[in-house]
Description:
Oligomer: single chain
CATH superfamily of the largest domain: TonB-dependent receptor, beta-barrel domain
CATH architecture of the largest domain: Beta Barrel
Low-confidence stretches: 1-21, 105-115, 772-778
CATH topology of the largest domain: Maltoporin, Chain A
Strand content: over 45%
Radius of gyration: 28 Å
CATH class of the largest domain: Mainly Beta
Shape: globular
Structural class: mainly beta
Mean pLDDT: 82
Amino acid sequence: MKKLVLLSLALMLSLTELFAARMLPTRGRVVDEQGNAVAYATVVLLRDEKQVAGMASDEEGRFELRVPAGKYHLRIQYVGYEPIDRDVQLAADGELGNLTLRTAATQIEGVTVKAQLIRREADRFVVDVANTPSAIGRDGVELLEQAPGVWVSDDKISINGKSGSKVFINDRELRMEPEQLLTYLRSLRAEEIQKIEVVPVTGADYDADSSGGVIKITLRKRRENGLNGSVSIRTTQGKMGSSYMPAANISIHSGRFDINASAWASFGPSEARSTEKTDYPASGKRLNAESTMKNDDTSGGGRLGAIYEINDRHSVGAEFSYLRMTESGTTQTHSMMGNGTTSETDSRFRPTSTTNGYEGTFNYIWKIDTLGSQFKVLGDYARREASSHNDNFSHIQPEGLPSVDSTYRDHTDNSFEVAALTLALDKKFSPKWSLQTGAKYTRNHTYNNSLYQYLKEEEWVRNDDQSLRVDYTEHIAAAYGVVTAKLGRWGVTAGLRGEYTRTDGRRNGVEQNYFSLFPNANVSYSLSRDGAYSLVAQYARTIRRPSFWTLMPNRSQISDYTYQTGNPDLLPSYTSDVSLTAVLAHKYTLTAGISIVDDEINQDMVPDAENPDVLGILWLNYDRTSSYYLAASLPFQLTKWWTLNLNANYVYHGMRLSSHGSIQYHHYLFANAQTTFTLPGKVYLDLSYRFSNRVYLGSCWVDAMHFLNASIKKSFFGDRLTCTFSAYNLLNRAQTLGARGDDFVRHQQVRQNWSSIRFQVGVTYNFKAGKAFQKKSVEAGAAEDRSRL
Length: 789
């Protein structure tokens, strides 16, 4: 059997080589009427009106297609320009030189270039949004949900389920709270987006604190003087809440100046209800509780940036952004605890909080040569200020005894600062060789002052056990080098990053000093000369530092017998990840890999030290976790009007909570399917389904979840106006959770806005004046650091 498999593999490779031997490279460069490169233009070769090869031009406008010798029709297209159509005869290596796109006098109608929506490159997946008509009307979150390996839940975005995934727009990270990040991404239109890149394993040029991978969103580039922008409004209505999300953005290009501004907001009430049952076998007690949480949240922000091109080689940019969030609500809880006799508790918790965020970025970029070499100086500053207040009251009625009232409150002030300076050199020696090197210094400062009090005999008394003050500074110095080489069918990227971390003043003067090395390597081999079939091997070691919020030991009461708190003693976790990916026909992929995490940061539920009937949700370091995984991405173009994208991940996951504990293994399956039907009249119907089986986190678990969504979109007035109607969670399934400890077993069912059926209506209007232009963004150097905010 083994010999038969090897023989079959050898035969397949031989046939692939025989076919690939007849491939000829065709190269060229797409430029505009001023000779400037046109990046991401669609370039295809057609034979008998069927596409035989295609790609998007790179940042310098270059492209290379490989096809057998013969006669073809070349078509090049980019929005806002007249398409290029010409016949070409290919008999040897073809150098087509510069191909000029001319500005379209009117809106281009009826010209459609068929392109593959999803393709795999050496270290990443690419979702080609701009060349996919079916993407019209979708927002940023909907596009991410169909990207390979990307999982969007109610509170986070992750790649293959890894925590700590980061989202960038035009090389600048979106540094927002998870909910606000999702709100902002929903304000983006597919018409604004050129492509989405999913990088599961990052290299040494990223901060080592990028263990969850990176999602890069590239907005369309436009050229010439003028302005464009959009305004939109979305509203979501459901039984458990409603929200309203207005957004607007504008980009102006004039001479050597680029100015970008945007604003967004999200507001509305929401509700969550939970029922829980907890058994305490040792004492024979049982807890039954019901909670209703009502919140009224308002968030919003704005961003203003400008770039000035001193000349063709030198440019400077600056950007400022502001974020404000306010939350207020009331939680009503009724609990019954007993083991023969029953004690009833009615409680009311009233949390309020206000957060203000300020960020500023400055950069200088020097384009050293025409090969794309660059030198950058990046300066960043971010500050987050938060103030929260909680008023809590409990009425306890023991059976047969007098009632007891308990009133307590807390007030917390937090501030977090991140300041960073980055020097980066990207040297291109040739199209086949390049070197990236750089250095970075980051200073993080954290301050927390929490006051807890209880009412005793009409006076407020300080609770010294819970009141605290944390004030410390963290310094991180880093240097890195990355070499990239293309050697025939081989592609190699290897890098090494070193980071030194020192922490002063952490909790009564405790200091931390450690140095770590983070190597990474990416080796790819093309089984065919056109790269349609290839193998990619990757390795990376990364670190995950705890976010500032998880370090704060503030106690937040969720119900009578449950609270949540941070842990200032959290250690950073280290991840080693190795994988092998097979790419078929440019787009279908199968990945196998192993990921081992030491001191993984996660939450767990444990009994309170003073009252074991009360359970605390704490941030802890697991000793070690290991994941053996298989991931498949299968994008299908079933017909001209029907696309189907399937993604599935299988994980054999092991957890060891303490160094002396045993390893617990579990099987996980995550899958999603997304299909789009293109109907007459530019109407698009989307259906999506997502599934995950029971997932364990320490002593806790989340039962299997199913989500079914549907939406319909229609564009009017030359795609300037897009209307959408969506229905989410049509299965209307509540979330079921559980936890098991040495002396407790808890079952809980939660119904909240994201897990209930809800409907959304959205309207987006696009405007422009003057000619189309190139939109630029200010690059930041402290992106990974600020994510800890």
